[in-house]
Amino acid sequence: MASQLDVARLTALRDSFESGAVPRDIVAPAGASAADVARTKSSMRSQAGEQLAKLAAIVRQIE
Fold first, then answer.
1. Cα torsion 38, 29, 1, 44: sign
2. Contact, 37 vs 28, CB < 8 A?
3. Regions in the chain scoring below 50 on pLDDT
4. Three-state secondary structure along the chain?
5. Is the entire prediction scored with pTM above 0.70?
6. Model confidence pLDDT, tens digit, residues 4-19
7. Could you give the CA distance from residue 18 to residue 13 in angstroms, rounded to a whole number?
8. What residues contact residue 26 under an 8 Å CB cut-off, 6+ apart?
9. How far is it, in rounded angstroms, from Cα 8 to Cα 29?
10. Which of 23, 43, 48, 54 has the fewest Cβ atoms surrounding its Cβ within 10 A?
């Protein structure tokens, strides 16, 4: 189940970076508990925020 949640998290992250926005939701795999989905969403949002901050810093350096 953990690997399926990782795939869902990474897919949502990949899709969100194309638009430059923090992902809002994941496509939860069948059988995932609500707690596991909530934990995965929280992790995904944190990771997305960190990566967007890094990209913003790089853009500022270029400008």
1. negative
2. yes
3. none
4. CHHHHHHHHHHHHHHHHHHCCCCCCCCCCCCCCHHHHHHHHHHHHHHHHHHHHHHHHHHHHHC
5. yes
6. 999 999 999 988 877 7
7. 9
8. 5, 8, 9, 11, 12, 37, 40, 41, 44
9. 8
10. 54
Q: Which two tokens stand for residue 13?
A: 């992250």
| Length of the chain (residues) | 63
Amino acid letter, 52: L
The number of beta carbons lying within 10 Å of the beta carbon of residue 20 is 9
Take residue 53 and report the two structure tokens written for it. Answer: 């901050």
